[in-house]
Amino acid sequence: MSDDLRNSSAFDALLFLSFGGPEKVEDVRPFLENVTRGRGVPPERFEDVVQHYLHFGGVSPINRLNLAMIDAVRAELAGRGRDLPIYFGNRNWHPMAADTTRRIYDDGHRRVLVFPTSAWGGYSGCRQYHEDITGALGAAIPGDDPTFLMRKLPQFCREPKFIEASVNALRSALAEFDEQPRVVFTAHSIPESADRNAGPAADGGHLYSLQVKAASAAVAQQLGIDEFDVVWQSRSGPPQVPWLEPDICDHLRDLHDRGFTNVAVMPIGFISDHLEVIWDLDSEARDVAAELGMTYVRVPTIGTDPVFISLIADLVERYVDGDGDVTALGCGDNGGICRPDCCVPVRRPARTQ
Ligand SMILES: CC1=C(CCC(=O)O)c2cc3nc(cc4[nH]c(cc5[nH]c(cc1n2)c(C)c5CCC(=O)O)c(CCC(=O)O)c4C)C(CCC(=O)O)=C3C
Ligand SMILES: [Fe+2]
User: What is the ipTM of this complex?
Assistant: First the structure.
């Protein structure tokens, strides 16, 4: 494709690219096999997570929540005079990204913006979505049609509207307390080695944990909160491999030992109340807080908050006419990564599963 075509033509479709989740009991194991293939997740952890999904009848809310966001983005774009078709595809479950990509192609679109449902850098949050795009192209597009372009939108964790939507969610939750609670931000834990590799190698790594801490600090600052914590949840992997800590449940015990009795837990790491949120925070962590006699409020994720939806529409508008900064972190064409040696996957021991 000529540089001219690549740089200056408008995009004609949007792919909302997410993680995916099961819709019924029979989906749970094949879904989890897709998620964990080659990832060194021990069988005991796999079985635990099967149970988390079965607890909810084998249905993750994630697809429904993504579809609600898509409807809201469609309405927002229509309100701005843009009727861009929006498609939905996932890394791990149906509708799979490859099937959706084929449908986009068959519908005649050739320039596709991709909105990933992760705000963050790092392998799982960013580079793996590039890999999903490469995989979808390979599986779905005849003969690698060179006129077909998929451009992933950049990481959005530093966007003022991401912070603003998070501030609004936390502010409303804080109104439920008579006295100021300890504010605890959480995000998905990742292996320490993955965090070391997160971001452009030249920047020294740790992009993911630095971004989570920076976003949390920005939210706290706007609410005048001087003391808060950033902790991690949903740890997976073999027990001997170090992951980001402290874990939310251990941290609640620690806060209790230090005399705190009220806690507001904000899952800044996720944009919807999917299973990692409703199991790990609304069940496990809530139970720990109850045992300790603590007042525990889980702050809603930003989901369909109008400020967040308008951010997604802004990102689309920034790129849709063929402008937009393709060198922004996380932005890439046809699955190409944004920087050399960015978020390099960590090599796993040969026999892990
Ligand atoms: C950084 C990050 C995000 C945030 C960025 C983003 O949003 O993309 C995220 C999101 C999510 N993670 C999710 C679910 C799972 N994550 C798993 C496993 C893992 N996640 C990891 C990291 C992340 N994960 C990692 C390093 C692993 C270990 C295996 C590996 O190295 O890949 C497993 C396997 C079982 C287990 O927990 O061991 C499941 C089921 C769901 C869907 C929930 C639903 O169904 O509603 C969502 C949105
Ligand atoms: Fe995950």
Answer: 0.96
CATH number at residue 292: 3.40.50.1400
Residue 87 among known ligand-binding residues: no
Helix, coil or strand: residue 150: strand
Atom of ligand 1 nearest to the CA of 128: 8
Q: Could you tell me how far CA 173 lies from the centroid of its own chain?
A: 22
Is residue 352 very low, low, confident or very high in pLDDT (cuts 50, 70, 90)? very low
Q: Are residues 99 and 195 in the same domain?
A: no
140 shares a domain with 47 = yes
- For 275-323, the pLDDT digits (tens) are 999 999 999 999 999 999 999 999 999 999 999 999 999 999 999 999 9
Same domain, 50 and 119: yes
Task: Determine whether the shortest distance from the Cβ of 37 to ligand 1 is under 6 A.
Answer: no
Tell me how far apart the alpha carbons of residues 324 and 313 are, in angstroms, rounded to a whole number.
13
168 and 287 in a single domain? The answer is yes
Q: Is residue 62 in contact with ligand 1, taking CB distance under 6 Å? A: yes
Residues contacting 307, CB < 8 A, separation 6+ = 161, 164, 165, 168
- Residue 129 annotated as binding? yes
CA angle 60, 23, 54 (to 5 degrees): 60
| Rounded distance from Cα 312 to ligand 1 centre (Å) | 22
Dist. CA 291 → ligand 1 center (Å): 27
User: How high does pLDDT run on average in the chain?
Assistant: 95
- Is residue 18 marked as binding? no
Q: What pLDDT shows up at residue 349?
A: 52
Element (H, E) at 188: strand 182-188
In the chain, the largest separation of any two C-alpha atoms, in whole Å, equals 64
pLDDT score of 5 more than 50: no
Q: How confident is the model at residue 2 (pLDDT cuts 50, 70, 90)?
A: very low
Cα 138 from Cα 67, distance rounded (Å): 26
Atom of ligand 1 nearest to the CA of 236: 38
Our answer on whether the CB atom of 188 is closer than 6 Å to any ligand 1 atom is yes
Ligand 1 atom nearest 19 alpha carbon: 48
Q: What is the pLDDT of residues 205-233, one digit of tens each?
A: 999 999 999 999 999 999 999 999 999 99
